[in-house]
Amino acid sequence: MSGRHHRSSRVRTRLLLTTAALCAGALAATGCLPGGAGAATGEQHPAQAPVGRSAPANSSPFWVDPDSAAARQVKEYRTQGRTEEATLLRRISERPAALWPLWSDPVSDIRRAVRGAAPKKQTAVLVAYNIPHRDCGMYSKGGAANAEAYREWIGSFAQAVGDAPAIVVLEPDAVPHVVDGCTPAQYHEERYQLLAEAVGRLKRQPRTKVYLDAGNPAWIKDPGKLVEPLRRAGLAKADGFSLNVSNFQTTPAVTAFGTELSALLGGAHFVIDTSRNGAGPLPGDGEEAWCNPPGRALGTPPTGNTGDARVDAYLWIKRPGESDGTCRGGPAAGTWWPEYALGLARRAKG
């Protein structure tokens, strides 16, 4: 990992390894299955909504980080006279992407975001990603040392948000990793309790919306398997669930899955990560198809106008251009990778 603020990994790696080997980095796990958060399929889906060539930062309802790695890269390219590359990267730098606050101390990152969003009355999009036993010991392994440390962390997170408008995507992969068995059984009850407590703590902030992560349709393919786990994780007090975080499944496919899951949950709303799904998933079902796959593209820009009553927003939850991990020549997970970012931007429909 980069040791900073991003998780992009998908533990559904090395599909041919044994169950024990897959979770070797975590405490002895049982039952890990292939085809999870990052598993890509060759199934064809309808085309994505196009990504425009403009960079509508000023009109966005969500905060755009003026000091993101993409924004700094644009400045560097301009200094170097690389005008074409700088223009391409504006498709990333001038659009809102979620902030993944520091695992050691989230306060400074969050305060910077909510203060930056205040003048234009924008909403900060944040990701809470620090659950104990995170990512089953793979590229983004880690998390809080124990339950009490997590409670303190999420309390600091919530307090830093204050009364500012915010969307919080809560613990990507945490529920699906319980469902697929990759998180060891002895931690399931604790995880449900911590997630439910986190929802409750975050919802004490008057203008914070919370979405519990529910993976993607190529991972937990039967939405019925997510219903009870999401309820136990506190969905009743949340604003809904999130789908496709850091993945590449097409918006139509994710929407169909989310609509089915929503119906099973009494009409729960959801948000979709469209950051890199403009070309859909990498065809085939190969090993680590989720990890820095070639040929991908930016998806629909972040918006609250989805045209679907149950889809609250399309968001760039994964920060486009940050690595999924040390695969295909990539740097550590969460590290800015300008060459990959340029590819995403260049292939964006527009």
Write the layout of secondary structure elements.
Elements: H1 19-22, H2 69-79, H3 83-93, H4 107-117, E1 124-128, H5 147-161, E2 166-170, H6 174-179, H7 188-202, E3 208-213, H8 224-232, E4 240-243, H9 251-264, E5 270-273, E6 311-315, H10 338-346
Parallel strand pairs: 1-2, 2-3, 3-4, 4-5, 5-6
Helix pairs in contact: 2-3, 3-10, 4-5, 5-7
Oligomer: single chain
Q: Termini, distance in Å? A: 33 Å
Major β-sheet profile: 6 strands, parallel
Mean pLDDT: 85
The proportion of residues in beta strands is 5-15%
Brief summary:
With 350 residues, this protein is of the alpha/beta class.
Q: How would you sum up this structure, described in words?
A:
The chain has about 350 residues and is α/β, with parallel strands linked by helices. Helix 8 links the parallel strand 3 and strand 4. It is globular and about 55 Å long.
List the keywords.
350 residues, disordered N terminus, alpha/beta, 6 strands, single chain
